[in-house]
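Fresh eyes needed here. I'd like your take on this protein's tokenised backbone:
***
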Amino acid sequence: MIPLYSALGLLCLATSVAAQSSTVPAVPDPSPLTLKISTASGTRNKTAPLLHGLFFEDINHSGDGGLYAELIRNRAFQGSDVTLGQKKGFSGDRIIDSENKEVPWGPTLTAWKSIGGALLSLDTLNPLSDALGTVLRVDIPTDATGEVGILNEGWWGMDVQVQPYDASFFIKPSQPLYNKKVTKINLSLRSALNNDTFATQSIAIDKPLSTYNYTQFSTVITPNKAAPNSNNTFAITFDAAEAKGNTFFISLVSLFPPTYKGRKNGLRKDLAEHLAAMKPKFLRFPGGNNMEGLSIDTRWQWKKTIGPLINRPGRPADWSYYNSDGLGFLEYLEWCEDMEIEPLLTIYAGYSLDLTNKQPANTVPKDELQFYIDEAIEQLEYAMGDVNTPWGAIRAAHGHPKPFNIKYVEIGNEDWFSDSYYWRFPAFLDALKKVHPNITYIASQATESSPANRNTTIPPGAMWDLHHYETPQFFKDRFNFFDNWQEISGYKGVQIFVGEYSVLSRDRVGGVDWSNSEGRFKYPTMVAAIGEAIFALAMERNPGVVTLSSYAPLFQNFNGYQWTPDFIGFTADPNATVLSTSYYQQQMFSLYHGAETLPVQNTVGDFNPVWWHASISTDNRIWIKLINAADKAAPVTLQLDKKISRVNGTILGHEDEYGFNYIGNATAISPKKFTLDAKKAVKGQSLQYSVPGTSIVVLEIV
């Protein structure tokens, strides 16, 4: 993903700024269109079976505070947020503000509050582990009365339902102050607005706590009623009569609701189910810029994201907030396993971004590159090696003895920002192919403009990851981009992965305004979905060229984000989740994706304002996708070579091309199913249909 604050965003792709018109073409009025569709065997081509998938990186609190189901914010005091910007008189970007005013990215008490006068501070003298060196110090006043302790506000609240929550925490008393009188610790879920308590669970302390080692307590807490909203907190408290005068060190406080597929340390169930409902075919992870890091040392290091949470230090990530890395390498692989989708792993390839936002940024020297190549080989062994391999044995010890099967590996991310990919890519490719010759490898730069001023050599059988954040008109203009692309570009035998794409803004002369964000959408609109659908049709009708694609970004926490527009918006309240127009368009295209393409001949009319594509399923259902970018209905005649018995349809449309879904009106633009009256619309092998204005339609013909 292109850094939001990037001055170099203008060189996203060479094609993004090429051939820009001095005016934005008007959408023409529809004219009659006749499409002749052949279903005869011998005229079909296999579709790309994995075309529609997912791309995930932790941006917009899509991981921590989002899909990663942990409800406790700042659970282990790993780090904090920063604000990036510029300072007059100095070159490049820098940190201009931070939660920790003394140490940017440093630990803070964010989201933690005192109960009953407890004094909260950070402590580094009593680390929980080598990875988690800062803990919460809780000093209980000597004159405390009633209830005393701490509470956590969650990620802008937390949802409380009548369901079991897995709670745990580590605690150690200060030895010289410990009076050994505490007989229980109380955990509770309570309202942040009033005195309502929805659940309380007591943990009995039947012997003195160790003052040498931390003790971990785990329990299940089940509310007896649901909270009316998400303004709720989680509390750990003591009876002040027992605890007064004591000091306790606490860390790695965790609270998990039921997760997707019941995975321990897993995914937020409702958000994961929205993804699964799309029937995606693959997941690209872990990024994105967030994989590269803002320095080589702060790259996403997979070895630091596996194993017990107590051994995961987290990292200052690329999107201005600290990552806990609770959602780590194994969790990504299990996500793929649980959704029955292909993992597409992006590996670090020796290039990192920089706070200054200057490009090219941080490149590993040639004579140091082997370490990172070996790291990638070990990463694949952790995922794919059997239990007799060193890293496969470690994976088994982490609870997953069965190896995963990775068929796709991307080498780097958006390496058109670098001036070194032309030599880093072949170094990684050659080494990886020797160990894993059957993996399909993907290059992150090919023909884009770059500081190196040269294209990357990609061998036949490999792929190119293409990224486009554009206007609707851009995608309309490039409807034919993939036609004969391999021959035109000189990349024979190379296929394309459209790894990141979306409509970013209104149509405007010059395309997307990367400098001032003029016309940028806050939410995906109907016209955005239409532009993306047209580009998706361009991919679908070229299955020999484009085999994988994914929208970006995937998620947006409405309370803390860095990028708009986004696929799915959410808060702590599942009832406030918004599935965008882009989500529904992608879902329709994924669900109605045939096994073979059907040739379509336009005997009357041409593309624009209507675009189309046809495919057929293994059980002979014909799916015809029709996109009408005009605001008026478009008459279409479909002529098949077989009798039409029944026609069902699904439509996504809105009278306002700038209409969008939002909290309180989340289904304003959502797919509607319909059935055509065959007596009126069908005559033998011919079908008459008027495609409504500003709509995306899938007809199912049997």
In short: The domain at 19-24+53-69+261-569 is CATH 3.20.20.80 (TIM Barrel).
